[in-house]
Amino acid sequence: xxxxxxxxxxxxxxxxxxxxxxxxxxxxxxxxxxxxxxxxxxxxxxxxxxxxxxxxxxxxxxxxxxxxxxxxxxxxxxxxxxxxxxxxxxxxxxxxxxxxxxxxxxxxxxxxxxxxxxxxxxxxxxxxxxxxxxxxxxxxxxxxxxxxxxxxxxxxxxxxxxxxxxxxxxxxxxxxxxxxxxxxxxxxxxxxxxxxxxxxxxxxxxxxxxxxxxxxxxxxxxxxxxxxxxxxxxxxxxxxxxxxxxxxxxxxxxxxxxxxxxxxxxxxxxxxxxxxxxxxxxxxxxxxxxxxxxxxxxxxxxxxxxxxxxxxxxxxxxxxxxxxxxxxxxxxxxxxxxxxxxxxxxxxxxxxxxxxxxxxxxxxxxxxxxxxxxxxxxxxxxxxxxxxxxxxxxxxxxxxxxxxxxxxxxxxxxxxxxxxxxxxx
Length: 425
Ligand code: EPZ
Hints:
Elements: E1 3-8, E2 13-17, H1 22-31, E3 38-42, H2 48-59, E4 64-66, E5 72-75, E6 83-84, H3 86-89, H4 99-106, E7 108-112, H5 125-133, E8 137-141, E9 144-148, E10 157-159, H6 168-178, E11 184-188, H7 194-205, E12 209-211, E13 217-221, E14 230-232, H8 237-249, E15 253-257, H9 265-273, E16 277-281, E17 284-288, E18 298-299, H10 311-318, E19 324-328, H11 337-344, E20 348-352, E21 355-359, E22 368-370, H12 374-386, E23 389-394, H13 397-400, H14 406-411, E24 416-420
The chain binds ligand EPZ.
């Protein structure tokens, strides 16, 4: 199992490009299953999570090939086995987003029920509620969700809000099922995340009729079949935000290419409050640290609010601010595995329910730390860049799930990270 040795402190300077979005790519890969034939996706990053999803699609009977030009070709001509097995779903919960497209295309699907995960309880009740309202019969057998719609699906008006607001993959699943349903579907309280909008654009490029894209009310007029597509996924706003936090935290100045700041207004707003300059230019932006890091409060919310997927990285940043900040997590109230690890690096953090009080310190001190989930690991890496000494981040496979060769890309802008084999399991 690989570890990172991170020497700090460093000051990041230079240019880094953002890759295609992992969380847009996964549901879009699932969407290609709706249309018989070969679809080609451009910009899908090379990540562990994408490999898991590729395996999942292949075992359905659809060959997936990474072409020489880097595009991902998925041949969904035939689907022999509409099953998402336990072995794959337990590796990656996003596997659940094959439910909607396979139900719509094959009239039956079995997917292992995802269990708990490091960031908290993650039920799929809203996914199932939406599919039931489209006419699916759903039951649970031996840990598998079995959904059937032998007569096809029928459009419906569906309220998809839950106790924590909208659901990203739930909206994706129901939208993908509804595009082939008879009649009109309205999804109210739909997730507005740019990744959901990107999926809707891809579906429309396949011939679907989805409107209200990017708003909480999606209208979907069902059609009888879709065609394969060539589609480019959007850049990863969470990767962009991670680079922004790293630049700010190291007192650096970094130009971030392929960065859609329009999709990141809450993040840019918080950075500016923290005293960081963000200037949009061309298809990217320049992020420059100010004289000092000013404390700021952050509350995570569904889009367009501040994303939960950047909460850990911004907590690391605020840990070095000149005063006290409060970070409140409203999407996954238990998503705080990084708190204890950052504390090992001399951050002054106190967890109170779903909030963390951050008392800024002048310096972080390197320590051996353990990555627990993807974004918590990213927070530890950027803390390591700013900390004094050599930080060892164990279990970096978590970070490889969502960031492509992050150490090489950060090293090109001034980081000193080496990847070594071994480390604490
Ligand atoms: C997506 O997960 C992302 N994953 C997550 O990114 C991200 O943290 C999350 O959205 C929130 O933005 C992918 O896109 C692959 P949700 P998802 O359904 O769709 C509750 C990362 O680090 N809920 O929007 O599974 C749920 O418990 C990952 O890249 C229900 O109550 O999240 C949570 O409190 C991790 N019932 C809230 O809704 C449901 O049926 C939002 O979850 C579904 C969700």
